[in-house]
Design brief:
Layout: E1 2-7, H1 10-26, E2 29-35, E3 38-43, E4 55-60, H2 61-64, E5 67-71, E6 80-85, H3 89-95, E7 99-107, E8 113-121, E9 127-138
Antiparallel strand pairs: 1-5, 1-7, 2-3, 2-6, 3-4, 6-9, 7-8, 8-9
Helix pairs in contact: 1-3
């Protein structure tokens, strides 16, 4: 299981940050599906702050990411499904308003983490990378069926 992506286009970067901020304002936890050609954010009725709401947001690799590499659990189950706590994500993205690039990587250690490396730019034309680790829960293959209603199993 491996995932690494990068966004260098400013429009795509602002779009991605807007999606993350929107999802973070709606819930404290979301499910992320990483497929060979897209990243999908979902919020189920159980995860939403306002009960009775569902969210599905799909970011296509070719439209948002300049680099997108993933290797799923297996060839027949070529997807990665994560549960991400969003408590600190909106504040992190607010601090990254002047970002020039964003790298995302899944780190396979215990606990697994989704790492955002934000390249900040300053008036002096200097650049500095700032890294944030967000613990994630990898949703194991044997419980994917329990999430069938909203986990986009057929999307990958």
């Amino acid at each position: 299981m491996n995932f690494e992506a990068e966004i260098v286009d400013q429009g795509s970067l602002h779009h991605f940050m807007g999606v993350m901020t929107m999802v973070g304002n709606l819930t404290n936890t979301c499910t992320i599906g990483i497929c060979p050609d897209k990243m999908i954010f979902t919020v189920s009725q159980n995860q939403a702050i306002e009960k009775g709401m569902n969210l599905w947001c799909e970011l296509r690799q070719e439209r948002v990411f300049s680099k997108f590499q993933m290797e799923g659990i297996s060839a027949e189950n070529n997807g990665i499904f994560l549960e991400l706590g969003l408590e600190n994500v909106p504040q992190t993205l607010e601090a990254a308003k002047n970002a020039k690039a964003l790298k995302i990587k899944l780190i396979n250690r215990h606990p697994e983490s989704l790492v955002l490396c934000i390249e900040l730019s300053f008036a002096s034309r200097s650049r500095r990378p700032v890294t944030y680790d967000f613990p994630v829960k990898v949703i194991p293959r044997n419980v994917w069926k329990d999430f069938r209603e909203y986990l986009f199993l057929d999307a990958c």
